[in-house]
């Protein structure tokens, strides 16, 4: 369905795409948080923002891009069990997480690297399957307390540029492979002790579904799962065994409440787009086409079908300073051209806007959409 001919507000365009309508032009939706922190020398705390970051708001207004993620949490997790303690802190560039339970303790350390502007994992929270019972004990006892006042504060500050996604924690598989145990140890565990892996994943997913039920009546329209999926590591068999049923269930509960599901890919998407569409996921986020990964924008759309929203399009290597304006324009135009096959399209970075991106590349995007992205 085509929307009216009037010029739409930026977040109205995003809403139209999610609702199966055709906006006046392809929406521009960016995660500028990483670029902002690096460029403006804002301390990078993995705990996220604890209040509205006005400088980031002003940056989005300057660019004219919708803000959707990296705003901080819209709920807190806690346990009413006095014997369970969760702590996290950042001190001198080291982010520490500690979990204490009656059956054991877990500790994680991540160290800030000023060159990559990221926190590398020095010690994984989960080091072997012997730690799994501690995680399962914790998951059974975690509860959720919404913070919708924080959501409304961001909406008010951003105005027409606000489309905040609510977020679930990592799914069970993402918890292990993309975050707390690492690829190598998780793959070994999958092959050597699959029953233990399944039990751990089921416990994490059950906890997440309880969180989802607690926040379902909140003010958000779209929820994101930030699993950082990559099909070179997480194969079709892995997806079918550990992921498919969970994504399908989350999508079903959201759709029953007139809400939408996005999944953060941020890796090789070949194969994944079809699997997500089969689960009735609404949006594949952080999509990075060639030359960083295998598929061109056209191939992504062909695999995804007409209904899955494709959000992304600009690889970090193209966003950076080594790319000419002509090459940057061609990359953006090629992504925008896929709107002719389906209007289920958002223009975004392949993930976050990289810290080395020249500002004039960011500033070019509204002009490129005006020239190449109108319907």
Describe the fold and architecture.
The structure is a single chain. This protein has 375 residues and is α/β, with parallel strands linked by helices. The chain has one domain (10-77, 128-372): Alpha-Beta Barrel (TIM Barrel). 41% of the residues lie in helices and 18% in strands. Strands 7-8-9-10-11-12 form a six-stranded parallel β-sheet, sandwiched between helices. Helix 4 (132-141) packs parallel to helix 8 (194-215). The termini are close together. The relative contact order is 0.13.
Short descriptors:
375 residues, alpha/beta, 6-stranded parallel beta sheet, 4-stranded antiparallel beta sheet, 12 strands, globular
